Amino acid sequence: MKKIPNYSIPRVGPGENGEGVYLEGEEKKIGEEQVKTLFMNVLASDKISLDRSIPDSRSRECLALAYPKTLPTASIVIIFTNEFLSAVLRTVHSVVNRTPPELLKEIILVDDQSDREELREPLTEHLQRFGSLVKLIRSTERLGLIRAKMRGAREATGDVLVFLDAHCEANAGW
Q1: What is the pLDDT of residue 68?
Q2: CA–CA separation, 111 vs 163, rounded Å?
Q3: Which of 118, 97, 119, 1 is nearest to 51 (CA)?
């Protein structure tokens, strides 16, 4: 099972503490071209740790709120089609790392018929480190966003459903 990082220890590296990633030389050219053609700088994303630290962005008012000691469990449903592996994995890692274990029933990834090779075996192998906490459903036909969400919802066993984009990061207290 995956070990949760200790974010109280200062970390250094690309993208740590929510800092930007700056490429130089040939890498900068590649990144700029990726943004034009892929709408994402995959090279920069791949350099960022899947367990990166990000600053707590909650307001003072939010930090002052008191929540009940017992809350319902959550099934997190994440739909993706041809996202980049590092983005999908960083989303999963951030949810696992920043969700109280007693609240996180499961993460359900629904692959809405991706054809990117990195989303096949490399994704499946990586997800094994989470054991039964992360479930991967692969659609054999293109469902579209809403039907893919419904497919994930049908598999969910938590008390509450939470839908997340495949290219976001959960923050502290999310």
Answers
A1: 92
A2: 14
A3: 97
* Residue 128 maps to a domain: yes
Burial bucket for residue 74 (CB in 10 Å: 0-12, 13-18, 19+): buried
**Nearest to residue 88, comparing CAs of 123, 128, 37?**
123
As a whole number of angstroms, the distance between CA 33 and CA 27 comes to 10
Position 5 pLDDT exceeds 80: no
Is pLDDT at 91 greater than 80 in this prediction? yes
State the pLDDT at residue 38. 87
Overall domain count for the chain: 1
Domain assignment present for residue 171? The answer is no
> What's 142's DSSP letter?
-
Structural domain for 85, as ranges: 16-164
Would residue 57 count as lying in a domain? yes
| Range 142-169 average pLDDT | 97
- Whether residue 11 lies inside any domain: the answer is no
At 13-40, the pLDDT tens digits run 999 999 999 999 999 999 999 999 989 9
Asked if 4 and 97 count as a contact pair (C-beta separation under 8 A), the reply is yes
Structural contact between residues 112 and 138, judged by C-beta atoms closer than 8 angstroms: no
Contact 2, 96 (CB under 8 A): yes
